[in-house]
Amino acid sequence: MYIDCKNSQIHYTVDGKGESIVLLHGFLETTAMWNHLIPKFSKTHQVICIDLLGHGKTGCLGYIHTMEEMAEAVFSVLNHLNIVSANFVGHSMGGYVALALAEKHPDLFTSLCLMNSTFEADDENKKALRTRANKMAQTNFINLVRMSFENLFAVESKIKFKNEFSEALQIALQIPVQGYIAASEGMKVRPDRFEVFKHLDAKKLVIIGKKDTLINGNRLISKVKSTPIDYVEFSEGHMSHIENKSELTDILIQLIEK
After folding, report:
1. Exposure on the CB side of residue 199, measured as CA atoms within 13 A
2. Is the CATH number 3.40.50.300 carried by domain 2-257?
């Protein structure tokens, strides 16, 4: 299904009935990353998956997609579906988008899970890496995506989950260059939203991969201690929906149903 937002069509899926769960994918991912979770959650809930700007079947708006613009696209879908409250799970960039949405529409949130994601802004080193990657994207996109994907999995996981790694990589390679650059530029300028997350009146959870090289889990844990934010650590890397699939499913069910 599609809905118009500004000059783009936003692709989304809806499965099941009941209390709503909104699943937001990460950078170089699509709604397909949630395929194993949808059948489980849709038995008791309405599950809404959205392709973010420049990803999957959703088009681009320009050469920068801010997290606020992505959140606006998400809100347009939810408004179209008459959703007034929901549980949200955001993987990596999807977590950044969820936080941007929470800043503007906090009443939408029954719960929010930042899955392999962070409320922190990019530091200067990360911004520089994104700038270099965006230059490379214009001339050597396929190799860039392959290199980027190598860092998402723990070393052992790339062997253990060889098929899943290959499938996810093929999806990533279908993201247009413009979608890559626009999302990367948007992530580069996003603000720190720790205070937004801390004060959000909803159930809150951070999922951390112990071997995640993209997210500083120890620093997140130190920040969320003595706050209403819960956290859980999984054994592997950045791709918990593949590397820690059963544990992730159990944890999300607990969050939503508690």
Report:
1. 8
2. no
Q: What are the DSSP E strand ranges found in 6-125?
A: 8-15, 20-24, 46-50, 86-91, 109-115
- Percent helix, strand, coil in the chain (nearest 5)? 45, 20, 35
Mean pLDDT of the chain: 96
DSSP string covering 99-150: HHHHHH-GGGEEEEEEES--SSPP-HHHHHHHHHHHHHHTT-HHHHHHHHHH
Contact present, 61 and 69 (Cβ < 8 Å)? yes
Please give the Cα distance from 65 to 211 (Å, whole number).
Answer: 29
3-state secondary structure of 61: coil
Q: Give me the half-sphere count of Cα atoms (radius 13 Å) on the Cβ side of residue 125.
A: 1
Residue type, 48: I
Find, among 107, 77, 81, 112, the residue nearest to 96 by Cα. 112
For residue 167, give the nearest of 38, 58, 36, 33 by alpha carbon.
Answer: 33
How many CA atoms does the CB half-sphere of 160 hold within 13 Å? Answer: 12
Stretch 5-20: mean pLDDT, rounded? 94
Domain locations in the chain as residue ranges: 2-257
pLDDT for the residue 49: 98
Contact status, residue 215 vs residue 90, Cβ threshold 8 Å: no
Rounded CA separation 14/47 (Å): 6
Q: Say if residue 40 is exposed, middle or buried (CB neighbours under 10 Å; 0-12, 13-18, 19+).
A: middle
Segment 132-136 shows an average pLDDT of 96
pTM exceeds 0.85, yes or no: yes
* Nearest alpha carbon to residue 181 among 11, 24, 7, 28: 28
